[in-house]
Amino acid sequence: MNDQKEDVYAALGHLFYSIAASDGNVAPAEAAKLKALVKAEWMPLEPSRDAVGTDLAYYIEIGFDHAHSSELGPEQAFDRFSTAFHDAPAAFDASTRHMVLRTAKAVANAFAGKSKAEQKVIDRLEKLFA
User: Fold this and answer.
1) Tens digit of pLDDT for each residue in 9-58?
2) Could you tell me if 121 and 78 are in contact, meaning their C-beta atoms sit under 8 angstroms apart?
3) What domain range is 55 assigned to?
4) Which residue, 67, 92, 101, 121, has fewest beta-carbon neighbours within 10 Å?
């Protein structure tokens, strides 16, 4: 069960990376905003830990950082999230979907407001969740 949660949280990191990278640049403010939201909002909701004691919500940051360091394209990163969403739909109840969208919008607004490219990814996410 935790392996699936790890995959879901890492995929969320890929999603948030796809938004931050969609305009061609991941601003430090976007990464910082995500890290703050993971700590303040996601970690308190997820009591589970992996085999070495890492809070599973931290996998959001791990996924984001991996996508960034691998220079994954925004489209590729979004597709990884989409696959995880389809593989584990039960992990995305209405409350979780709302939190994902709220986090996505906060990341997009973290640096100089939301760009058209970032809004397109958010629109695509909303369509996926519909």
Assistant:
1) 999 999 999 999 999 999 999 999 999 999 999 999 888 898 899 999 99
2) yes
3) 2-129
4) 101
pTM exceeds 0.90? yes
∠ Cα 65 67 68 (to 5°) = 60
Please state, in angstroms and rounded to a whole number, the distance separating the CA atoms of residues 50 and 114: 34
User: 6 to each of 11, 40, 110, how far by Cα in Å?
Assistant: 8, 19, 25
The residues pairing with 9 across neighbouring beta strands, listed in sequence order, are none
User: Which residue type sits at 123?
Assistant: D
Question: Quick check: helix, strand or coil at residue 26?
Answer: coil
**Contact yes or no for 20/106 (Cβ under 8 A):** no
C-alpha span between 20 and 110 (Å, rounded): 9
Question: What's the confidence (pLDDT) of residue 112?
Answer: 77
For 106, other C-beta atoms within 10 Å of its C-beta total 18
Q: Give the separation between CA 72 and CA 14, rounded to whole angstroms.
A: 9
Count of domains observed in the chain = 1
CB 121 within 8 A of CB 74: yes
